Amino acid sequence: MRAPGKVNLSLRVGPLGPGEQYHQLTTVFQAVSVYEEVVARSSDERTVTVSGPQAALVPTDATNLALRAVEALAAATGTDEGVALHVDKGVPVAGGMAGGSADAAATLLACDALWRTGLSRAELLELAATLGSDVPFVLQGHTAMGQGRGELLTPALSRGEFHWAFAVRDTGLSTPAVYREFDRLHALADDPREALRRGGGVAVPPDPDDDVRLMQALRAGDPHALGAALHNDLQAAALELEPGLAEPLAVAQDAGALGVVVSGSGPTVAALARNRQHALVLAAAFTASGVADRVLTATGPVPGARIVAED
Ligand code: C5P
């Protein structure tokens, strides 16, 4: 199986209601050609091994999202079958690009095929949403607007191919920590000038109409317009926790990126290029300035999780 990572072209975060665990979102996802590869083999046990440049950062115990997907599918279908998984990670770990979610999505499809569960696509999507807010999107791929906590998807039209360069850091950011920092910044709204100075302000329920220009840019296949419309409400919180992120943002701007944004909860920085050649120029600028532990280039949109080879 292969499942892509994602970049949030727009991420608008509403307030956290009392007693609520998740923030209401309006986001526009694009799946990009950075992949997790998952091999699933029949086994008496349920195990996972991991390879790739950041494999050491990934747990292989029951907290691993691929193993949680195995357990969720087994519980939903009442099977006692096992599986031996191997995950080759191409998506940055804890980078805001849904690498763990891609593992979960690929694993759901792999075990569904291996165990012949007969679940419908809708049932798989429902199970995906229980595993994480981004899992349904990486299962679907392409371009979509996400609402609710990100799991309610509406496919969006997008023409042509967009080119990206990504600055990756080995020290990831915890998604819950970034949301907590977002809440802290917005709590400063008692003092609106201080809140604005730190990138905060009053959190308002997100309005999908705020992304009209972005959706038009996607329909037109216009990278200049898309670059101007990129938006991330979590960026100020990510920068507060990791001030060094200002450097890759500035480097990409200086190298002529059409737009640059922190991906999801970060710390990966996504720079939109004019074309494939320019994506390599942006990647070289990241590398030359020493602002990234690793640099990737990719295109989007691409399809979601799917079987690439079967024995
Ligand atoms: O759904 P996922 O497991 O990716 O979310 C991880 C954490 O990020 C949640 O436990 C929550 O703290 C935060 N989150 C949030 N609002 C969302 C999505 C995630 O507060 N819409």
TrEMBL record:
Catalytic activity: 4-CDP-2-C-methyl-D-erythritol + ATP = 4-CDP-2-C-methyl-D-erythritol 2-phosphate + ADP + H(+)
GO MF annotations in UniProt: 4-(cytidine 5'-diphospho)-2-C-methyl-D-erythritol kinase activity; ATP binding
Pfam families: GHMP_kinases_C, GHMP_kinases_N
GO biological process: isopentenyl diphosphate biosynthetic process, methylerythritol 4-phosphate pathway; terpenoid biosynthetic process
Record carries keyword Nucleotide-binding: yes
PANTHER family (UniProt xref): 4-DIPHOSPHOCYTIDYL-2-C-METHYL-D-ERYTHRITOL KINASE, CHLOROPLASTIC (PTHR43527)
Protein name: 4-diphosphocytidyl-2-C-methyl-D-erythritol kinase
Species this protein is from: Cellulomonas composti
Taxonomic placement: Bacteria, Bacillati, Actinomycetota, Actinomycetes, Micrococcales
